[in-house]
Structures are given as C-alpha cells and as structure tokens.
Automatic annotation (TrEMBL), chains A, B, C, D:
Protein name from the UniProt record: Ribulose-5-phosphate 4-epimerase/Fuculose-1-phosphate aldolase
Pfam annotation, one family: Aldolase_II
Annotated GO CC locations: cytosol
Coiled-coil positions: none
GO molecular function, one term: aldehyde-lyase activity
Domain of life per record: Bacteria
Domain Class II aldolase/adducin N-terminal: 19-204
Keywords in alphabetical order: Lyase, Metal-binding
One GO term of the biological process aspect: pentose catabolic process
UniProt xrefs under InterPro entries: Aldolase_class_II_sugar_metab, Aldolase_II/adducin_N, Aldolase_II/adducin_N_sf
Source species of the chain: Blastococcus tunisiensis
Amino acid sequence: MTITDRTVPGLGTTSDLGDLVALGCRVLAYRGLAEDILGHISVRTAGDELLVRCRGPQERGLLFTGSDDVHAVSLDGESEMPVGFSAPNELPIHTEILRARPDVQAVVHVHPPAVVAADLAGLPLRPIVGAYNIPAMRMAQEGVPTYPRGVLINRPELGQDVARALGDRSVCILRGHGIVATGDSVEQAVVRALNLDALARMTLQANSFGTTPPELSAEDVSAMPDLGSAFNDAQVWAYNVSRLQLAGLADPL
Amino acid sequence: MTITDRTVPGLGTTSDLGDLVALGCRVLAYRGLAEDILGHISVRTAGDELLVRCRGPQERGLLFTGSDDVHAVSLDGESEMPVGFSAPNELPIHTEILRARPDVQAVVHVHPPAVVAADLAGLPLRPIVGAYNIPAMRMAQEGVPTYPRGVLINRPELGQDVARALGDRSVCILRGHGIVATGDSVEQAVVRALNLDALARMTLQANSFGTTPPELSAEDVSAMPDLGSAFNDAQVWAYNVSRLQLAGLADPL
Amino acid sequence: MTITDRTVPGLGTTSDLGDLVALGCRVLAYRGLAEDILGHISVRTAGDELLVRCRGPQERGLLFTGSDDVHAVSLDGESEMPVGFSAPNELPIHTEILRARPDVQAVVHVHPPAVVAADLAGLPLRPIVGAYNIPAMRMAQEGVPTYPRGVLINRPELGQDVARALGDRSVCILRGHGIVATGDSVEQAVVRALNLDALARMTLQANSFGTTPPELSAEDVSAMPDLGSAFNDAQVWAYNVSRLQLAGLADPL
Amino acid sequence: MTITDRTVPGLGTTSDLGDLVALGCRVLAYRGLAEDILGHISVRTAGDELLVRCRGPQERGLLFTGSDDVHAVSLDGESEMPVGFSAPNELPIHTEILRARPDVQAVVHVHPPAVVAADLAGLPLRPIVGAYNIPAMRMAQEGVPTYPRGVLINRPELGQDVARALGDRSVCILRGHGIVATGDSVEQAVVRALNLDALARMTLQANSFGTTPPELSAEDVSAMPDLGSAFNDAQVWAYNVSRLQLAGLADPL
C-alpha cells in the first residue's frame, strides 16, 4: 500500500487511518460535496479488509464524523461492529471498486450538487481549464465516465456495474446520484473529489451564455507538467484540514 | 399520534414538543428556507389542539425562535396567550390542514426562494434525481401540487383551499409565496421541507442550459428502497441540529 | 418626525439616532448590499439638519461603522466635523431627497449587486411575488423608478435629478450604480432596501429560463392586507440586529 | 518606490513588506479569489530584488499564509531560502512583469473563478458599471487584455509573453488559468484584483438573460472623478483586513 505522507500540518503526525477517513468526511461535507448524512469514504487495509465510514446510534451527518464511526469490513461485507453500528447501504460501491482495482487504496462516494447538475444538464466535463486546476484538466482530458442509473448501489452486482463504468479512471459520475473518486490514499481520493467538483462548477458557469467555452490546445496540454502528489494532494489536503480547524471542526476526532 | 424518536444527539432526550417546534424553526431559517420573520411550524397535541410558533413582543425572526414563542391554539383558532403574543396571521394554514388530514401531526410553512423561483419560472419538479435524495425523488414522482394564488392565508376558507390543493400529498407549493410541508412529526415535516428545497435547487441548476434533464427510468424508480423514517428523517434532523450547535444557535431554547 | 419604536430587542432602548445609522450600515453590509466601503445612511434631525455616515481617518467599510462615524450636516452641506472626517462624496443624494420629500426622515444609499444586475439585464421588477414579501410586492406594483445615469452624485444638481427620478416612491434604482431607499425611520429605509434586494434576487432567478413569470392577479393584489410598520419594519429590523449580534458585529457601536 | 500609507487600522503601523504580502494573500483567499493553495503575491524591494510568497514545508494554502512564507528572490530567480522552502513554480510571472514594468511595485497572481468563467464564456468585461465601482469601470474602459494560453508560466519566456499581453495595463486575464494584477503597492494590486473580480461577477449576472447590458455613456465616463488611491485602495484594504480580523484570520502573521 502506497499512502502519501501522513504528516498533517497543525495536527501532528497521524498514523491512524480511521482518523484520516473521519477527517476526509468532514472536509467533503464542509466544502459542500455531501449534504446531510449521505456519503462515505473507505480505505484498504492490510489483510484484504477495508475501513469504512459507518452509521451509528449517534449519526449526525458527514460533517460530524468521528473516528468511532469508522469500522473494518471484509471485501465480502462481513464485519464485527459495536452494537448500533452498520455498514453503509452502498458498501458495494467500495468493496467492488477495491476488488476490481488493486491500484486503488481509497474510495470516496459523495453527492456534489454541481457535478450532478452538470451531468443532468447534458454538459460534458471538457478540458476548458489549464493551470487553473491541472489535475482537473487531466481528468477532463481523459474523460469522466458516467454510470447512467440513479439507483442505490446496495447489491454487489450494482457495485460491479459501477466499477465497470469507472474502468481505469480516477473518478466516475453516478447520474442523478453523485460521484465516486478513487486514490492511492484517502487524501488523494478526497482531493480528486474536490477537483471534480471545481471542474463542474466552472463548467456550469462558463456554459451559461449559449457559447461553447474553448478547450485547451493540444500544445498547452502537452506543455503541462505533473507537479506531483505531494503538491497536488498533500498540500491541498493540509489547506482543507486547516479550514476545518478554523471552523472548529477538526478537534476532537 | 406517532412521533419519531425524540432523542436528539447532543441535546439529550427532548420530550417537549414546544422545544421541537422552536428547533425546527431555527433549522429552517439556518438552512435559508425562511428569510427574516416569516414562517411557522405547528404540531398537533392531545385534545384537539395544536402548538404553533407565535409572534411575541420580542420577535426576532425564525432563526431566533425560543420555546416561549410556541403556544397552544384550538383548531378553531382560540387560545389564551401571554400578553403581547398572537397566533400567526396565517394560522388557518395549520388549522385547516390538521383538520382535513388526520394523518398529519405537524405542518411547516416557510418561504424557500428556490422553490418559489422554480414555480414562477414554470419549471415542474420532476424526478430527475434518484439516490441523490430518495425522499425528494418520491415527492417528485407523486407530483408536487401548486396552490395558484399568492394571497395571505388569513381566513379559514383560504386555509381550506390550501388543504384542498395539498390533497393527500406531503408538500404543496404556494405560488409567489412559499410552501407547506407536512409530516407525522415536527422532524419529518421539517426534513420534507428541506428535501423539497434540495429538489428545487437541483431543478433550477439542471435546467439552466436549454436542455431537459432526463427523468429516472421506471426500472430505477421501482428498484429504489424505502430506507425508513429513522434514516430519512431522524438522522437528517440530528445533522441539522448539530449544525445549529456549531453555529451557536442551539442553546438556550 | 415620526420614528417607529426604538426598542431593539437585546440591545435595550436606543434613543441615539447615530447608533441607529451605524447599526443600519452594518445590517446592509452584513446582508451583502454594500460591498467594501461604499454606501451611507442619513436621518433627518430637528433643526433642518441630518445625521449622515461620514468617512474618517480609521475608515474600515460599512460593516464596521461606529457611532463616531456619524455626524451632523446641514441641508446645504455645511458641518463642523472632527479633524479627519468628511461627509460622503454623494451627500447630495441625501440632502436633495430630504429637501424634496418632507415626508422622508431617512435615506439609504447602497450598491446591491442583484438590483444593479437586474436593471442592467433589462429585467423590470414586476409583482411576481405576493405573500412571499408583501412590501416588495407593493413596491413592484407601484413601479420601481430608475435614474438612468451611472455618475457619482457629487453635486446638488445631480442630487436633484435623483430626487426627481425617485418622485413620490419609496425606492429608486441608480443604473450601473446602486439604489436609494427612503423611510419614515432608519429602520424602515433599511428594511425597504432589503426588500428591494429580495425582489431583485427572486426576479433574477425566476427569469433565468426563457419564460416570463406570471404577475400576481388583480384580485390577489387587492386582497393583500397591510400588516403595518411594526410588523414589516420593526420586527425585520430586530431580526437583522440579532444576526449582527450572532456574528459578533453588534457591539460595541 | 512609491508605497501608499502603511497604516492599517487595528493592526498598528506595518513597515514590514513581508507582512503585507502575507496579509494580501489571506485577503485574496478569504474573498474567494484563490482556492486551495494556488496563487502568490510579490513586491519589489530595494536592490533589484522581490519578496514573494513561497511554498514551505508547512504549506497550508493562501488563506493561512504567514510572514515566514515570504522570501527574497532576485529578478533572475536566485535566492537563499530556509531549508524546505522554494519559490513558486510561476515565479516568472513576477520577475518578468517587474522587469518589463518599472512603474509596477507589486504583482498579484490568483485564480478568481468568476473572471476565468466570464473569459471562457466569451463575455468581454465592458464598462457596464459606473459609480458602482469606479476603478472597475476604468479598467473595463481601458480594456482588460487576455493572455490566450492556459499553460503554467514556469519559464522566463512564458513570463515575458504574459508581460507582453499585460502591456501597460494594470490587470490581465490568463485564459483557463487566472489573473495578474499589478500596483504601486501590495494594497493596490490586491484591491485591483478584487475590483476585477467584482466586475466579472456583475458581468456574469447581467449577461444571463440574452440581453446586452448597456455601457456607460461617454458623458458619464468623462464626468467620473478619480477619488484617489487613499480612498480607492487604502480604505478598501482596511475593510478587507478588518474582515480577516473578524474571521480570526489576521493574527498572528
């Protein structure tokens, strides 16, 4: 398992994956990608298991996720949880993607309104931005796939359908539903969800006037460097954790 | 009377219906469904009475509702209130719906801008979302009725007109005015108002580009489970109460 | 001079008009009607004078207005201010409206983006809402006049032009610039500015889809009661002051 | 070097240019012009050097910039920084503009979504506002140039291209990327970025209805006074610093 640097500025070194899952849920909710209680994050652990954000007897929504909301589940969905806790209804999103994609270590599922709206409006997410957000540009250039059904992904077969729609990409839109974002770490999956949301918001705004925004030229695409995960993921993650701290939402986990 | 679980995480067990009405008013205002001072919530009590958010000598708007703003009124509008308090001008919305709908225990009336705008723009609230918000999908599939007049509902006959427009549905749009949402508890009525608002916001955004967003397929609609009120209502309520707490708005009632 | 009840819940009785002017500036800025440092409020006092929000050596924008930013000026623009303070460049807006309209006691000038945008887009403010906001409906029904120039109103002749454009109405749009709102009190002028802004925001949203929102019927207009200034102005004012308090912006003046 | 008055109300006299750069970064991020970690400010110092916002080992985004993130670099990009710090990838934006424009003392580079969206939508920034925002009107009247490539400006040749696109103007749009704003002080460059953003937001909103907003008349343009940098820049800066203070973001630097 390749997990990026766990040093979160301001929080000290975090070795607990459960804390990362909880923090990631709070970041996504704070940034508006997860209204109310819906959405979850999972991360693969040693031993063919995953840690996933569950629902407990004190459920208060993603913004208020605690480390004790995160529990281990096997890829077959088996688990031993404290009384009152249960895995998400849509656990198959996580288990089937982790099964189909050995390179993926973490999976985000949330409901960003802008991404859902852009898809429903028939607006493809094209590479209209460059240095504005390089990882978002790359996502758009590779093409963001869409799973066309709006059903709840509560059976393994449906999870397999989503995994097929995702293919070898990093993110996938679920029509009338939300998104899936993957990464080699919780931080990367969360930041990719944020980047997809930023691309969708720009797409909605730039398409409101009956004109078609120009795509980045091939020359500009090929000139664009990869600034690396330490820059693209770890620093953006640290920014978002700092915003949680400012809002009184980072402590205690 | 079937009221859902009153346990509000972080607030202890609440048995006082007046506290629930006050909290519900704050939630609706905090989430942007009730600008300024307009709107109210009622809940049926034993003895053919209702508790309703009134206006008092220290009126400061729905966001700052206290338990002492909530008073008992009979279905005929009779009450004995402390000096300076009066029932809302639009009390007939509450009394006539509670009279016409024995299954309804609580009634919300607020002015969500997105719902009013979508109706004025001629945009019907169709089932364009699925798992994004299942209760909103069901509302849209059943059809959201509209009461076509913009008048103040300050007479029993007008309240009866609104009750007729509502029919057997859970929510109703009042054109150029606001909405009515009903439930078997304060929590359910409040959360249904939030869901209607979420549907309207998505409808506005997805219809901004001259395309018609696709509806959920019949197959997907029929595959959608009912996750139950403990999930759909109580947990979303707990999330919203937690947001009030974070904002310094939950204490004291 | 008829000034509405000065009792501000939570702040005790306020007899100082300067405090009201300062609070009103903060309310308008907090609600997004006055970006940065631009805008001011005036109120007529005994002796043919007005109190007006001035600029001083510690100018920090409308959101941070203090009572000591408010100074007396004659209708001819003469004043004796502390060193470093000066009347607004656009003082003639206030003096000429107060001169032309003996019924007006207070004048607001701010730059609400939604009102300016609706006017630039050619969208008239029509009575599309009813009970959503009755005072806004009345404004729209009477017709909201527009002063068609975008110049700075820094000479008496320009102030007279604005007063003529305002005529006998309560509010006026200044194209590419902002608005003027008047009232028989600071509170009423501020709340009218808020209502005009609410109407413009609804107009923008309801007109975004190529359809023309229906106007309220004549029958509904004539059925609409006047709920009075204690309800329409004083309670909305109290709500807004409470929001300032919650935001840490009400104390000290 | 002509730097405007350094007296920042509430913060005492600030003579440290590094503090100003840090504060400016926070202002831009707080006002929504710089999402996440991207963007920077530079200021020319004596001795043919600049101070520029760098990236360090505790990078947490522009909103959390500290004085210790600001370091000296020569116009040739040479520097001696503490371990772990590095100049921005896009340092050539700063060095080449400062080299080409001896009149410029400070350079801002950020990614305001509204400006990028308006450009992608093909909406020119025209002088549609007057007294709403006089400096924005002047910018629009002079014409806001666009650099048409979306590439990362990480080589001197690209920085020279941007400087050429900027020409003798105060601001420049970088397509699919962001903006450059210049000034004779950090404060002026920051406030110009804010004004450009305000103009873009108004342009987006006023162009949403298929109509073309009217431009200010030549007569009104020529009647518009220059209120001076103490008013246009220093007071707007003081307002923005006060907002940081209210948000708990001004101390410590």
